[in-house]
């Protein structure tokens, strides 16, 4: 029978993270989000129990600050002690938010199943399953390094087995690093990690899930356990990882977030009045909420489309009144911002046929829209200049994005926006 190990890969929990921007709008929702992060951590602990995990990896930034509150510290310890009763080890590294020097002050309070691994050098811990050597966890917490140094240096299967004096079925690496997405934070590379001959690399720091490669992940970011703002949309959680000799790695997502953050575009072109606009927003929030495990949601809504209501919806006073009315419609949903990105109803064909400046620009824009490959190349260059990659799905959305760009262009020419 082949050897097998199952563990939970988590990190970037950020216990104690503030929600200052939302508090000015809604103290009640700010309070709810303050409890959402500890609740998400409890879900990570429960996932270890429900999935009968062999161990838990916490890949940095358990706390949002180097001086966590006593309440958050005790909440963290309570979770570890739940796993201690089940005999589930926990391997912990520091992140850039909760540096290792501060962990040393509380290390004496950690239960017997918790292992804090250093940041100044690689360390290796042997996990035994059913009395036999099973897995070596090779780990190093966050450390500020020059860009030309590699935080994974010295973390290889050979080094791990030599340090522990045992040959084992599995070797798992754990780092808090930005990889290529944030190369100034504990730099390393996919090439270095893949060359180390580890079965799996559990990474923290990037708050979005990434699996490399997706069909047999050898490198993975688990993402954060709970989205903290509108930049962290969609379901958040941890990863269940199963390694079995002779088979591809199995990695599955376990949702832990308590409140979902979403950006929504709501087309109001067919709305004949503001009541219909509110109804369209409510439907859009229900539709999106049905796609995620969370019942509660904070949404930022952009009203889009060509509409006779454009002038009214462009009034900030009207928008704020609509937002407040929307927030009274369903207590589990909250709109933190209602934005007007609509355009007035225009006869584009008439504009395009005219000799006016707007007609000339519209014809040029339409001509450019015919060459989708040139459009994609332009986007790739612009994103690359900012150190970003073009989001997935953009190729399929090019016609829609081109149409919206043309509307924006006409609005700029009309002097409606800068």
How do the helices and strands line up, and which of them pair or pack?
Layout: E1 4-10, H1 20-23, H2 27-50, E2 55-59, H3 70-86, E3 90-93, H4 100-103, E4 114-116, E5 123-129, E6 132-140, H5 157-164, E7 170-176, H6 190-195, E8 200-204, E9 210-212, E10 219-221, E11 237-244, E12 250-255, E13 259-267, H7 274-289, E14 296-304, H8 310-313, H9 316-327, E15 333-340, H10 348-353, H11 357-369, H12 372-385, H13 394-413
Parallel strand pairs: 1-2, 2-3, 3-4, 6-7, 7-8, 8-10, 13-14, 14-15
Antiparallel strand pairs: 1-11, 5-6, 9-10, 11-12
Helix pairs in contact: 2-3, 7-9, 11-13
Question: What brief labels describe this structure?
Answer:
single chain, 418 residues, alpha/beta, six-stranded mixed β-sheet, 13 helices, 15 strands, 22% strand, globular
Structure commentary:
- This protein is an alpha/beta fold and 418 residues long.
- The chain is 35% helix and 22% strand.
- The protein has helices at residues 20-23, 27-50, 70-86, 100-103, 157-164, 190-195, 274-289, 310-313, 316-327, 348-353, 357-369, 372-385, 394-413; strands at 4-10, 55-59, 90-93, 114-116, 123-129, 132-140, 170-176, 200-204, 210-212, 219-221, 237-244, 250-255, 259-267, 296-304, 333-340.
- The strands form three sheets. Strands 4-3-2-1-11-12 form a six-stranded mixed sheet, with helices on one face.
- Helix 2 (27-50) packs parallel to helix 3, helix 7 (274-289) packs across helix 9 and helix 11 (357-369) runs antiparallel to helix 13 (394-413).
- The model has no long low-confidence stretch (mean pLDDT 91).
């Amino acid at each position: 029978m082949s050897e097998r190990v199952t563990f939970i890969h988590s990190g970037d929990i950020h216990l104690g993270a503030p929600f200052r921007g939302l508090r000015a709008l809604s103290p009640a929702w700010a309070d709810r989000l303050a409890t959402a992060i500890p609740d998400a951590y409890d879900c990570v602990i429960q996932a270890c129990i429900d999935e009968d995990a062999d161990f838990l990896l916490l890949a940095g930034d358990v706390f949002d600050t180097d001086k966590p509150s006593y309440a958050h510290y005790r909440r963290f310890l309570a979770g570890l002690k739940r796993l201690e009763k089940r005999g589930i080890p926990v391997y912990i590294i520091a992140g850039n938010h909760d540096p290792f020097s501060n962990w040393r002050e509380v290390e004496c309070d950690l239960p017997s199943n918790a292992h804090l691994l250093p940041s100044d050098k690689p360390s290796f811990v042997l996990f035994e399953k059913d009395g036999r050597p099973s897995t070596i966890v090779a780990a190093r917490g966050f450390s500020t390094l020059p860009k030309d140094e590699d935080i994974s240096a010295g973390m290889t299967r050979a080094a791990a087995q030599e340090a522990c004096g045992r040959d084992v079925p599995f070797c798992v690496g754990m780092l808090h690093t930005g990889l290529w997405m944030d190369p100034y934070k504990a730099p390393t590379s996919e090439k270095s990690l893949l060359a180390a001959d580890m079965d799996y690399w559990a990474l923290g720091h990037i708050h979005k899930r990434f699996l490399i490669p997706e069909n047999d992940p050898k490198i993975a970011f688990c993402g954060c356990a709970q989205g903290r703002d509108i930049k962290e949309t969609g379901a958040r959680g941890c990863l269940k990882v199963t390694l079995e000799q002779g088979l591809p790695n199995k990695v599955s997502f376990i949702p832990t977030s308590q409140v979902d953050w979403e950006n929504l575009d709501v087309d109001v072109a067919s709305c004949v009045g503001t009541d219909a606009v509110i109804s369209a927003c409510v439907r859009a929030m229900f539709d999106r909420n049905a796609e995620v495990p969370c019942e509660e949601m904070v949404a930022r809504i952009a009203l889009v489309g060509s509409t006779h209501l454009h002038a009214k919806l462009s009034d900030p006073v009207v928008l704020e009144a609509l937002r407040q009315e929307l927030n009274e419609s369903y207590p589990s949903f909250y709109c933190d911002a209602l934005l007007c990105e609509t355009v007035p109803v225009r006869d584009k064909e008439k504009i395009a046929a005219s000799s006016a400046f707007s007609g000339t620009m519209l014809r040029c824009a339409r001509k450019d829209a015919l060459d989708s490959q040139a459009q994609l190349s332009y986007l790739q260059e612009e994103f690359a200049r900012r150190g970003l990659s073009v989001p997935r799905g953009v190729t399929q959305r090019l016609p829609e994005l081109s149409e919206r760009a043309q509307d924006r262009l006409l609005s700029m020419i009309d002097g409606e926006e800068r």
